[in-house]
Specification:
Keywords: Cytoplasm, GTP-binding, Nucleotide-binding, Phosphoprotein, Protein biosynthesis. It is found in: Cytoplasm. This is Elongation factor 1-alpha. One of its GO terms (molecular function) is GTPase activity. Helix content is about 10%, strand content about 35%. The protein is mainly β and about 290 residues long. It has a 7-stranded antiparallel β-sheet, with no helix packed on it. A hairpin with a 3-residue loop joins β2 and β3.
Length: about 290
């Protein structure tokens, strides 16, 4: 973006400098530059490159499509329409009853059907369902952003990060899990006992590194046989994490392989994002 800036003026040299640095960084956190990344020069303020390709008289070296054309050409994500219902709660408030907001991650929701609020396992019923307008809608499907008026639970008993789900298949709630983690900008070494804050879907939880299990080799992703004693910036590891907030009551998550949006997370410490990760294994109390 901002290729129209007076210090840049659609310079191919500056464009290559920026995309080269960004590609190197993204490659370091697991992206494949050849298959996962596509760069194009644009100017959001002047709208050049947004709806229509940048004119040749402005940027003669560019052959990229417009941003919207490229987005339209991308393969649509597969929606879990026939899977059990899951919706992380992003916000809650009172308005003629208990209201919650969130994005449906799988399944379909309808009025007057019973659902389960996790992790407190309270049965609730949908009394009103809203989309992007003030008009009620009869149902909503995976991918929709919705507002719900629910019965059976009070607003103060709900927190962002709780999950409304189907009683037939409640979301998993665990306090210990294994994850594949890429360390980004971390100031010191990381070892067992390291504390930080995890952001996963709408939930924010304090976690501790219970154990470092494997180091992953760059390029191959092969696991080390010996557990590393510590990890540093740029390393990829498999670790066991433990939720320590809420007296270790746990967090509603799924493995990345089954539900990507409920299985990927970021770790932050001292106001900085220090790592990204994905849940690979859930450890229930009886197995811990």
């Amino acid at each position: 973006n901002k290729m129209d800036d007076p210090t840049v003026e659609w310079s191919e040299e500056r464009y290559k400098e920026c995309t080269g640095k960004l590609a190197q960084f993204l490659k370091g956190v697991g992206y494949n530059p050849k298959t996962d990344l596509h760069f194009m020069p644009i100017s959001a303020q002047t709208t050049l490159g947004i709806k229509n390709p940048v004119p040749k008289d402005v940027c003669p070296w560019n052959d990229s499509p417009s941003l919207l054309d490229y987005l339209d050409s991308m393969q649509a994500l597969e929606r879990k329409l026939n899977a059990p219902f899951l919706m992380p709660v992003a916000a809650k408030y009172r308005d003629l009853g208990t209201m919650i907001e969130g994005k449906i991650e799988s399944g379909v929701i309808k009025k007057d059907i019973k659902y389960l609020m996790m992790p407190n396992r309270v049965e609730t019923t949908i009394s009103a369902l809203y989309g992007e307008t003030e008009d009620e809608i009869p149902n909503a499907t995976c991918g929709d952003q919705i507002r719900l008026r629910i019965k059976g639970i009070e607003e103060e008993d709900i927190m962002p990060g709780f999950v409304l789900c189907s009683p037939r298949r409640p979301v998993n709630c665990v306090s210990t899990f294994e994850a594949q983690i890429v360390l980004l900008d971390i100031k010191s070494i990381l070892s067992a006992g390291f504390n930080c804050v995890m952001h996963v879907h709408a939930a924010t939880e304090e976690v501790t590194f219970d154990a470092l299990l494997h180091k992953l080799e760059k390029g191959t992703g092969r696991k080390s046989k010996k557990a590393p004693g510590f990890a540093t910036k740029g390393m990829s590891i498999i670790a066991r994490l433990k939720v320590t907030s809420n007296n270790g009551a746990g967090v509603c998550i799924e493995t990345f392989a089954e539900y990507p949006t409920l299985g990927r997370f970021t770790l932050r410490d001292q106001g900085q994002t220090i790592a990204i990760g994905k849940v690979t294994k859930l450890i229930h109390e009886e197995a811990a």
